[in-house]
Design goal:
11 strands, seven-stranded mixed sheet, four-stranded antiparallel sheet, about 120 residues, globular, mainly beta, about 50% strand, about 5% helix, 1 helix
């Protein structure tokens, strides 16, 4: 099993940056594709970014392309989300997700494992 803990959320002014981290337990982190999702109040949980087991492929939702970067550090069992040029519409709880199947981890509700989330608030 995998346990995920997100950190790095907070309050930031529009145009600013935040770096989220997701620390995973276990010794099989490199067997998991990883993803970030977010959920704003009253909205559906939406896909943000994903990275394959090897780190060779990254995928982003259109609204964050060019602003967010997902990366992984298997030596530290960590996946990160660097968020630049933040906008008020980025405000949400951000969740880390993991699954051995990349096709599952990019689907909302498809991942086997989820973190508890970290709040990101972008003020205008």
């Amino acid at each position: 099993q995998v346990q995920l803990v997100e950190t790095g959320g907070g309050l930031v002014q529009a145009g600013g940056s935040l770096r989220l981290s997701c620390a995973a337990s276990g010794r099989t982190f490199n067997n998991y594709a990883m993803a970030w999702f977010r959920q704003a109040p009253g909205k559906e949980r939406e896909f943000v970014a994903a990275i394959t087991r090897s780190g060779g492929t990254r995928r982003y939702t259109e609204s964050v392309k060019g602003r967010f970067t997902i990366s992984r550090d298997d030596a530290r069992n960590t996946v990160n989300l660097q968020m630049n040029s933040l906008k008020p519409e980025d405000t949400a709880v951000y969740y880390c997700a993991a699954d051995t199947n990349y096709a599952d981890v990019i689907r909302a509700g498809g991942a086997d494992y989820w973190g508890q989330g970290t709040q990101v608030t972008v003020s205008s």
